[in-house]
Amino acid sequence: NQMMARVKEKNGRYLRPDNEPTIWTPAVPGWFQVLGYITMILFQWAASIPTIAIIYAFLVPAEPTMITWFFRLWVLHTPFIMGIPYAIFVMTFKWIFIGKFKDGERCTPYLDNMRWLLHCLLQNGVHRVFELGSCSSEILNQFYRFMGVKIGWNAQVMPLNLVEFDLFEVGDCVAFGGQVMVSARNANGVMKKISIGNDSTITNSSIMLSGSSIGESCLVGNLTVLPPNHAVPDVSKCIGTKYIGGSHQAPITFANKREKRPPAWQSNITIMGHFI
Fold it and tell me: How far is the C-alpha of 76 from the C-alpha of 108, rounded, in Å?
């Protein structure tokens, strides 16, 4: 009964208790879903124009040469010819129709719809291939920075399940595993900032919920869920997804060891290697 208890606001929306292990998942109107799919198809079509131009310039010559054959293979395998224009379209959409996600802001029907559409655009196959092709490099870091994420020096970022970009902050020398999810919205639709400190690592399929934070020199293990407003202390490691009494509990936390950071020149060489 406590878990299902709801409090009704004046505007007719229902609020759930803050400790209930859900995030804000409003219904999106059917007509807007159709509009979203059309928008995604138009973006993908527009992003294919550079590919078509390159195909006509290099792949249909009168007399094929070694250079044109090289470009044929490159165009067929690179994720960037379509991926970069598509990423620019996504960034433009976000800043025109959504703007900046704000800490403490409550979701509205308009924001819910636009957020859903942004999520769909980010799940497009062209964009997913672009993110995978640029993972752990400054290419992906710059895309996330343009979307609003604060990313420090020498961060090894993998593709993230993230929409509220402006509410996510990553420190220096932070490493990510695959398919990390970051959700800044709590059960009541209020958005709260999420952060990771310097020299920390969050590994595969871990989840950070609204208001959670990771300190410096920390390790968050695979499949760990950080509940809303949970803070992992500095120089510690944690793991676990505990669900007791209708809500998520804090993961098990151990002491960690602060490692010595490598010289800056060595890290810069690694950054350049990832970019190449």
Answer: 42
